[in-house]
Records
---
Amino acid sequence: MRGLKDKAAVIAGGGSGIGAATARRLAEEGAQLVIGDLSANAARAVSRSIEAAGGRAIGLAFDVRDAGSVAPGFTLTEEIDRQLDPGLRAEFVAGVRGRRLVSPEDVAAAVAFLLSEDAASINGQVISVDGGRTMRP
Ligand SMILES: NC(=O)c1ccc[n+]([C@@H]2O[C@H](COP(=O)([O-])OP(=O)(O)OC[C@H]3O[C@@H](n4cnc5c(N)ncnc54)[C@H](O)[C@@H]3O)[C@@H](O)[C@H]2O)c1
């Protein structure tokens, strides 16, 4: 993906789930990250794992209330994976067009794309990452 190397990005809620996956993906693309979370420990754990993998990140506590342009559908984070009832899981899988549920990494890929130069002409859009559960003409 073009244009993410050395770009600075601030990720709110980067201590777990979709935010953590997004932080890891942007770091893989060469971005420098500030990872914030209500839990400083969670933010620091993610930043440390990124640095151990050769990326550049710092983790700290912050409280951000914000709106993004990626709209995740039901996303199988580690926490949800641990708790999801098997019957409900089968129902969710039946509702998507692929063979699996949306992963945090799928959402992270969309965020990385929108931040990259490849998406320079995509502005003010809301991109659904929901496995095709909703289809718009
Ligand atoms: N997982 C899904 O299926 C799904 C679907 C649609 C939307 N979402 C939304 O996407 C976001 C992330 O979901 P997730 O499943 O990865 O959640 P998660 O609970 O795994 O992670 C959320 C992280 O954000 C942190 N946080 C909460 N409020 C904060 C604040 N004010 N400032 C800074 N950090 C804060 C939490 O401490 C936590 O580490 C949530 O807003 C959720 O509602 C999730």
---
Amino acid sequence: MDGAEPTRLAFLVTHIVQIKKNVLNQMIQHSQAQAPLECCGLLSGQDEVISDLHTMSNRVKSPVRFEMDPLELLLLFKSLRAVGDTHLGIYHSHPSTEAYPSATDIEESFYPDCTYFIVSLKDPLSPQIRAFQIEDHKVRGVEMIELE
Ligand SMILES: [Zn+2]
């Protein structure tokens, strides 16, 4: 990500992420379909707008953590490159806890340029999604701007 310094700086200052409403709905649907296990996936788009969701399998099949399959990831990154899309976010669900990164989430966050989304199903009638940026073990809340 060379030459992207001004954009990156603006992002850090404002902590804003733009995301299509239907992507947020798909995130909730995937979380509910996989509950009580955690689900996970990648988010992509163009011009800093998240417009696509890619479900991934949680290879540890756990209710408290997730791990993406490296080969599945590789294939997805390849297909994103082929269509000129950028990897902008990662999401996973918390079937029974708050939408806040766990110690493991923070430990295993390898994409400081991405926005991390967590779907909480703690209140099954009212799923919550929160967005974060995780860099050097520091968690910052990111404001979501929902687009039609
Ligand atoms: Zn988590």
